[in-house]
Amino acid sequence: VGTNMYTLDTNIELDYHDAASVNTRCQGICDQWDNLGTLTQKRRDALERVEKLWETIDQLYLEFAKRAAPFNNWMDGAMEDLQDMFIVHSIEEIQSLITAHDQYKATLPEADKERIAIMGIQNEITKIAQTYGIKLVGVNPYTVLSPQDITNKWEAVKQLVPLRDQMLQEEVARQQANERLRRSFAAQANIIGPWIQTKMEEIGHVSVDITGSLEEQMNNLKQYEQNIINYKSNIDKQEGDHQLIQEALIFDNKHTNYTMEHVRVGWEQLLTTIARTINEVENQILTRDAKGISQEQLNEFRASFNHFDRKRNGMMDPDDFRACLISMGYDLGEVEFARIMTLVDPNNTGVVTFQAFIDFMTRETAETDTAEQVMASFKILASDKPYITVEELRRELPLEQAEYCISRMTKYIGPEVAPGALDYISFSSALYGESDL
What keywords would UniProt list here (predicted)? Predict the structure, then answer.
């Protein structure tokens, strides 16, 4: 172009005959050249502007990736926590979970601000593209997360929050119901447990009481037995509460030290103790009446037994029993004491019960004519007949004693015998000779 322009200028200077057209042509070429320069600069400016816009978009893409990744991880953790299954056993534990959940909910406004900021970055990218006509192709080169991914996951988090609230409140209601069951059970158990222990002690005191007669002891024990029977409804209610506790899967109760197993064992021991004690007193009455032992003698035996019953459990160990015998004037060698122990403890249990002690002492102190005395007593009841009838026994003796005699007397065999005649003579001889009768 420069060469051509020089040629044209030379022709004009040499007065070329067509200089005017040449000049016009030259001016057109110059104008085109200037226009080309202008267009080139505009193109450069436009490309530089687009380059800067893409640099801005790239920086925004990078900023989006930097903030979206940790926010997405936070939402993943939040969703996992919101769906986490929990097992609690107390109101305190569920309240701890509720507190943690409330603390989490308190972070949601700040998290939402972060989400809005992240989405604002994407909106800025879109705005730049729309304003300057930039066509966005592909995805963010710095992350696989899209704005829609963030939006969808945030909506999922927001839906899980009220569901978690509902689950926690339902668990609160369940734990409150469990706590009511615990308190109801404990209130009963804390009454029943001491009541059983008290009755056990009272029965023990009645059984060792020497101030009254055996009949008075029996009456007291019968009253205790009736009170115990009447108390059974409380045990049944406790069993009902225990069943509800089992169904609710409650395994601890800080409000009481008593479990249902403790109550059951104590109750069975109480029933066994009252039945055994009544039976012992009945046997003592039969022994007293059958062997002619006075109430004073029984009281003496009881006083001696109580004195050497150091553990106060209604039994003496061999050393205590030996000391008791020595205090009563027995001169005991090892062989003699071993013989006596076989009498009072035939099963080798290592203890001597009061009943065994009474049996031994009655054998030791009974008069030789004891059997005859018993026979004489029955003869009086039988109006001098050699036999006695069931009706006479039931009429003349207390019910328990009558039934005891009826169950052990053999049928009387002889002439002109009334129906139901029983042999009291052989019974008296056997009773005197055998302690288990």
Answer: Actin-binding, Calcium, Coiled coil, Metal-binding, Repeat
Question: Could you read off the pLDDT of 357-379 as tens digits, one per residue?
Answer: 888 887 776 544 466 778 888 88
Cα–Cα distance measured from residue 3 to residue 6, given in angstroms and rounded to the nearest whole number: 5
Mean pLDDT, residues 200-216 taken together:
79
Residue given tokens 């004519």 in the structure block: 369
Domains of the chain: 45-145 (1.20.58.60), 183-282 (1.20.58.60), 292-365 (1.10.238.10), 371-432 (1.10.238.10)
Lowest-pLDDT range, 17-21, 46-50, 192-196, 430-434?
Answer: 430-434
pLDDT in tens, 389-421: 999 999 888 888 889 899 999 999 887 788 889
As a three-state string, the secondary structure of the chain is CHHHHHHHHHHHHCCCCCHHHHHHHHHHHHHHHHHHHHHHHHHHHHHHHHHHHHHHHHHHHHHHHHHHHHHHHHHHHHHHHHCCCCCCCCHHHHHHHHHHHHHHHHCHHHHHHHHHHHHHHHHHHHHHHHHHCCCCCCCCCCCCCCHHHHHHHHHHHHHHHHHHHHHHHHHHHHHHHHHHHHHHHHHHHHHHHHHHHHHHHHHHHHHCCCCCCHHHHHHHHHHHHHHHHHCHHHHHHHHHHHHHHHHCCCCCCCCCCCCHHHHHHHHHHHHHHHHHHHHHHHHHHHHHHHHCCCHHHHHHHHHHHHHHCCCCCCEECHHHHHHHHHHCCCCCCHHHHHHHHHHHCCCCCCCEEHHHHHHHHHHHHCCCCHHHHHHHHHHHHCCCCCCEEHHHHHHHCCHHHHHHHHHHCEECCCCCCCCCEEEHHHHHHHHHHCCCC
Question: How does pLDDT run across 65-115, given as a tens digit for each residue?
Answer: 999 999 999 999 999 999 999 999 899 999 999 999 999 999 999 999 999
* Greatest CA separation for the chain: 193
Can you say whether the dihedral through the CA atoms of 77, 82, 86, 91 is positive or negative? positive
Residue with tokens 């108390």: 231
Q: Is the pTM of this model over 0.70?
A: no
pLDDT value at residue 422: 93
Instruction: For residues 420 and 412, give the distance between their C-alpha atoms in angstroms, rounded to a whole number.
Output: 8
